[in-house]
């Protein structure tokens, strides 16, 4: 087993490396196609950020596309230069929020129940994406693949010797080679690529800020910063806690660097960390392995990546994503014993999931309710009513 300081590169780390692939891969390709971005540059830079993050944190702290921003780019077909300008804009904002201590203040202000609610809302969103978009993608054959993948993961989820996601990925590769793989297309696109340099002007940065950065900031504060810090504390209680300032700084630096090499805006994410952890990742090794995959694809298969991706069955990625989402949702279990916190977490999660700009609204509403005496009394009454109803039903 190769070991670099506290990084490990074993079977479990390799399995954990695929824990977030169901979210990242499709978003990257969709953004490239919608915005006309340079495919090799996006993959090489995205992979490089993964490796740097793994080395800095030495835990499965992955890099993800900015989800709210990706959704706006895909649906609005926003031009590539504006997308890259948005990366500079949000990186600058996060840098100053970290530098002047605003993120630390938010951490102290926003209660744990609200963070759990944001995680719950994100988990529900990912579950819905997996069940509506990925798993039905290949109709009857896709459902069969999804069912087989589901059984494999259930049977091997905590197995240290035979990591579940490795078998799912291997099954997907076998399926792709058998039914979809076109070696001629892949060979025709094999050539060495390097990232393209890009220098956005003030107009691109301003447009990116207005169109993309502003809608993204609430989700980033909730999921990329606060929820990620909470998840790291939950999953690695024996390690020195990571400060939100450090997470904010690495978030900002990634977005100040990536666009200069034509890379997409990116972030950390609670779901990504949970995904790596769920399938075996315990050190930064899983993130380094994951990033290396993207660098190899970008360097040698840049212009054929869309074809490579299309060969892998989406239903299997959907099942991996589904289990990542379940892991996020179950983090809410520590609020169950406190009825007030449990109700706040549920309410926050449903707002985050169900409304436009839901993460911002959920943070404000959830935090306001938590500190409001009137709201506390109302929640207490609701809790007592629920308890009496349960006792009546049991009788």
UniProtKB/TrEMBL annotation:
InterPro entries in UniProt: MOT1/MOT2 (IPR031563)
Keyword Transmembrane: yes
Signal sequence annotation: none
MF annotations from Gene Ontology: molybdate ion transmembrane transporter activity
Keyword annotations: Membrane, Transmembrane, Transmembrane helix
Pfam families listed in its UniProt record: MFS_MOT1 (PF16983)
Protein name as annotated: Membrane protein
Natural source organism: Leptospira wolbachii serovar Codice str. CDC
